[in-house]
Write a structure and sequence with these properties.
By secondary structure, this protein is α/β, with parallel strands linked by helices. It is 49% helix and 24% strand. The chain has two domains: 83 residues; 157 residues, no CATH class. The radius of gyration is 27 Å and the shape is elongated. The two termini are 28 Å apart.
Amino acid sequence: MRNEYLSDHAGQQLRSAQQGRMDAAAELRACEERAAMAEARLRASRDDRPWWRRLPSPRTASEIAAADDLEEANWQLRRAARRWERSKPEVDRRAAGVRGETNLVAGLASLSDEWVALRGYRNSRGETDVVLVGPQGVWAIEVKNYQNTRVHIDGDQWSYDRLDGEGEVRRTYAAVDGSGRSWARQVIDVADDLAAWLSGNGHPVGVGTAVMLVSDGAQLGRCREPEVDFVGTDPQRLLEAMAERFRPIDGDDCKSIVELIRRDHRRHNR
């Protein structure tokens, strides 16, 4: 299988998150230095008092100013610390996304070079992680890498349980994107738009849809009418589903479809 990046959105998000964490770390160090300097100034303003004025008495103007500076510096330090703490989960989440795509492509490595994996395809309905084009059809695949989760599906209602080390449910979340679409709807919208584009350009082929759960410990729980053509955790099972939904495309058509997908991505990625 040939592998081609149309865009490296997941990689860009990871690099942006990593840069944000480095910026947060630099800000935290600077705030620590400012707080230390403000504390030193406050001590110095107190030491400047004559010894007989070091007994409890109203603070001098310099002490008040130094104390205000220290309070402001400590507030900025707390804010910087919170930002730095929040940056780690974001980096971990973005890194998981990159690993998920990589793991899926590795799991599909048995496909011949007649197949092309186009990664990061975007059209008017959004973006999906991988579009596969080959002799058995065209597939749009959304990849989810959420550690220790169990996914439940009831039509367009998708959710996932976050599990602890004992397999017990810690919390349940809606399995949706930032606009509230279910994971199924994410890939279906993109696939429908792609199918319309291909049909309008002389290639009326259906586009299969799949949601792949690729993380360690990911499970598929209740599953009723998932709407997508395949949802699962095993790339080999996806290959079986592709074979069952055999939609033959000859080599020349595959090349034309790949070029049409590139064109469509370019015009929407501008």
